[in-house]
Specification:
heterodimer; A: alpha/beta; six-stranded mixed beta sheet; 10 strands; globular; B: alpha+beta; Alpha-Beta Plaits; four-stranded antiparallel beta sheet; 4 strands; 72% helix
């Protein structure tokens, strides 16, 4: 699903990542762990092609970073469901509109949009929040909305960048359980975290990054 | 595809409400600039009334040679009538000249002298409904060159001054309109740029979710166009109201009625759409 092939990326004054190679298969759940500034977010940005490698190449869902044209990058991002630490929900739209957005982007019919969004909100137990604005929800609920928005377009992989960063331990645990359920239904999940205690002993692969280099796979 | 288009259209409308503060600033600036442009257009459209009045007073007097017969005079008058700048020609025969002399001086010149010394003549009126500067010199030369014409008299210096002034005013109106149009595009563009700047998080999120540039741009461009249309409508109705008031009071002062045609409204609408499109496209392109 995701493959890094000797990927290096250099910021103007420092190394982002160096000679990174790994693969995430289509039904895998993997964690990426490392301290602040180690290159976790750079890896994520390289996956959703916000950054392009200076050396090597990244492949996502069969599309390679060294062959893709800039205008085709949105097509790669549509294969990915993104979950962010700070949710990135649109504050001037209600929960329904936030979750429906990825479907409108691909031109899905209005009645089908309604059906799919409501199903997703039901699955995540937030259907009664449909008309609320994001700021009216708790952190855990907002993160659920974020996951609903990521899942509603039926992505091939979920990229979660420190999704538990703003949650209390119980909500963080619930969120990982939720992502595991998503993975059990066949969607690959790649989650970044710096909280080792939260992800250990879950039976998933853990990639460790230090100073821009993968130490342990 | 239709669902996507309708979604983008609705988003454009909703953005007006979401960004009400910046939208109202933008609408106000469009209103102000289009109001000024509208007033200039009306002044331009109605400026022909005074100039037409003056042109109707332009008088070219053509005097024929004394030995020219009435039949020859008729032929010359026909030739003058065919000239494109000429609106009408009023012939004054030698007999008419005697009568006019008698009316003005109370004496019968034929009885006094025993013959008619007055030549036949014609009064030439020129076309008055042109926005272009009327230059009488070539016309005068053409009439003068006709066989049988003795003297051509006209108020040359006064006419050329009036025409120069009129032309200067029309050019000034065109330049001012162009400059205001340019300023309004920059103002709208900057206002929308401000709106977009406050939405940079939204744009980033949309990009991360897989939105194409067009999907992000279109609602902003539509928002700009809608703002301009609202501003233009406000400007149109304000001008229309002012015109009504003006037409109510003006006839008491001068014999002038301000005219406002359908094309004015359509023109204002087209200008607003163009301003809105260019302004918002320019602004949104800076961020994407």
């Amino acid at each position: 699903m995701i493959a890094f092939n000797d990927v290096s990326y250099f910021f103007s004054k420092e190394i982002g990542v160096k000679d990174v190679s790994f693969e995430i298969s289509h039904d895998e759940f993997a964690f990426l762990i490392g301290p602040t500034g180690s290159g976790k977010t750079t890896i994520m940005r390289l996956i959703y092609m916000d950054l392009m490698p200076d050396e090597g190449f990244v492949t996502v869902g069969g599309i390679s970073s060294n062959k893709i044209k800039k205008r085709k990058i949105p097509m790669v991002r549509r294969k990915i469901g993104m979950v962010f630490q700070d949710y990135h929900l649109l504050s001037d739209r209600n929960i329904f509109e936030n979750v429906a957005l990825p479907l409108h982007m691909v031109g899905i019919r209005r009645d089908e949009v309604r059906e799919r969004v409501m199903n997703m909100l039901n699955e995540l137990d937030i259907e009664e929040k449909e008309k609320k604005k994001p700021f009216e929800l708790s952190g855990g609920e907002q993160q659920r909305v974020c996951i609903a928005r990521a899942l509603v377009k039926e992505p091939e992989v979920i990229l979660a960048d420190e999704p538990t960063g703003n949650l209390d331990p119980v909500a963080a645990h619930d969120l990982i359980k939720l992502l595991e359920n998503v993975n059990n239904e066949g969607t690959a999940v790649f989650m970044v975290s710096h909280n080792y205690n939260l992800i250990k002993n879950r039976g998933h692969r853990i990639l460790e990054i230090q100073m821009g280099e993968i130490q342990n796979q | 595809m239709i669902d996507k288009i309708s979604f983008l259209l609705i988003e454009g409308f909703r953005n007006l409400w979401r960004h009400k503060l910046t939208a109202s600033t933008s609408i106000f600036s469009v209103f102000l600039t289009l109001f000024l442009i509208g007033i200039l257009i009306i002044v331009g459209q109605n400026s022909h009334y005074p100039i037409e009045y003056f042109r109707s007073k332009y008088k070219i007097e053509v005097f024929f040679n004394n030995d020219t017969s009435d039949a020859q005079e008729k032929i010359i008058i026909e030739k003058i009538r065919e000239l494109p700048e000429v609106r009408s020609v009023t012939p004054i025969t030698k007999k008419d000249a005697v009568r006019i002399f008698k009316d003005q001086f109370g004496e019968d010149v034929v009885k006094m002298l025993g013959y008619n010394p007055l030549p036949g003549s014609a009064v030439v009126n020129i076309n008055k409904d042109s926005f272009e500067q009327v230059n009488l010199e070539p016309l005068i030369e053409e009439i003068q060159s006709l066989n049988g014409v003795d003297i051509v008299r006209y108020q040359g210096r006064l006419i050329s001054r009036l025409e120069r002034f009129y032309q200067m005013m029309i050019n000034l109106l065109k330049i001012s309109t162009g400059m205001i149009l340019l300023v309004s595009i920059v103002v709208i563009s900057n206002t929308i740029k401000l709106t977009i700047y406050t939405c940079r998080e939204l744009i980033k999120t949309l990009q991360l979710l897989g939105a194409t540039k067009m999907f992000i741009k279109v609602p902003f461009i539509l928002e700009g166009i809608f703002q301009s249309i609202i501003g233009a409508s406000l400007a149109f109705f304000t001008i229309f109201g002012l015109m009504k008031v003006g037409n109510h009071y003006l006839p008491q002062l001068v014999t002038l009625r301000i005219q406002l045609d359908l094309y004015f409204g359509i023109g204002l609408l087209i200008i607003s759409v163009v301003i809105g499109f260019i302004g918002s496209y320019r602004a949104v392109s800076k961020f994407l």
